[in-house]
Amino acid sequence: MNNKILLVLLLSIFILLPVVSAERIIVVLEDTDQIKKAEDLQTFKTAVLEYQEDILATIKNFEKEGKVRNVEQLWIINAIAMDADPEVIEELKKIKVVKKIVRDYPIELFSDTESYTPSKVDIKSGTPQIVWSVKWIEADKVWQWGINGSGVKVAVVDSGIAPHPDLEGKIIAWKDFVNNISQPYDDNGHGTHVAGTIAGTGKLDYKTGVAPGADLIGVKVFNESGRTDFYILLKGFQWAAENDADIISFSGGALPASGIEDTDYIPPYSTKEYLIEVYSSVFEEAYKPAFILVYVNSSDLKYLNISLIAPNGSVVHGDRMDNLIGNPEIEWCYKYMEKDKPLQSGDWTLKIQSTSG
């Protein structure tokens, strides 16, 4: 009899426990004109944080009710990340300033890093050899003009940077968003590969870096298996920006998820337009938008008319980039750039028209 009573009590306890299925989400907000026109990073950050105050107060109320957890502002994209219950997500969708809500999703490196050992060189000569990739883009010719990356800080947002003679003294800042280890390391290898491509000095043998004078900021966001989450990646970008990175290097890809368009269908004899937003007035001190690269893959490419339209309504003509594609019969790659100025600020349009049924 006692056993039966105990069983009933246990079942009662389990029934009374609430079932919570909170999701990690990123709430992206609409940008104001003040945010779009910010002329430097600090002004942009201040404008975003001030703009978020009202909706943040609403989210904090949900947090007090236990419906929201782990709230964090991502000013870098004017968004707020959180773990939210389904009912809260529905309420947030109704708020006017909310542009969209996306689920946090996994990101993975494109491929495993392969190691390659160059032919032996005469170390005694004291002159490092230059790898073919550096010569191929003629970076060594730019060095002759005294331009080698000196004074430039490059953030490598990746799997980390391992200590290496060719990178000695290069890592001037470090942040680990995976294991919170205070000293630079790399348990995957990809980030170190990238760091060497950027700033390898050739102290050991081969000079691998295109900018051997540059300094590195290590930001570890990928784990040992080469995986991370979109939210962690954004935190890495934000930290790099806050720590004075001039350039952010990122070599990763995204798994299929909501909000990412991998394919689209254009019915016969119809036209579709795709918006490309360019704001050259944002971050005046940074590198301004210089070119647009468009890639289209279709089994019926010959039946498509593809054009790029500038914000002023004019159709622009650039260059076919056949060297970047495998099969020109099914792949189309196009680059447009202004020779002596940034791209026009505003909404660019990629227009694709089907000419066959």
UniProtKB/TrEMBL annotation:
PROSITE patterns: SUBTILASE (PS51892), SUBTILASE_ASP (PS00136), SUBTILASE_HIS (PS00137). The keyword Acetylation does not apply. Pfam families: Peptidase_S8. Signal peptide: none annotated. Belongs to the peptidase S8 family. This is Peptidase S8/S53 domain-containing protein. One of its GO terms (biological process) is proteolysis. Keywords: Hydrolase, Protease, Serine protease. Transmembrane segments: none annotated. Residues 149-254 form the Peptidase S8/S53 domain. One of its GO terms (molecular function) is serine-type endopeptidase activity. It comes from the Archaea.
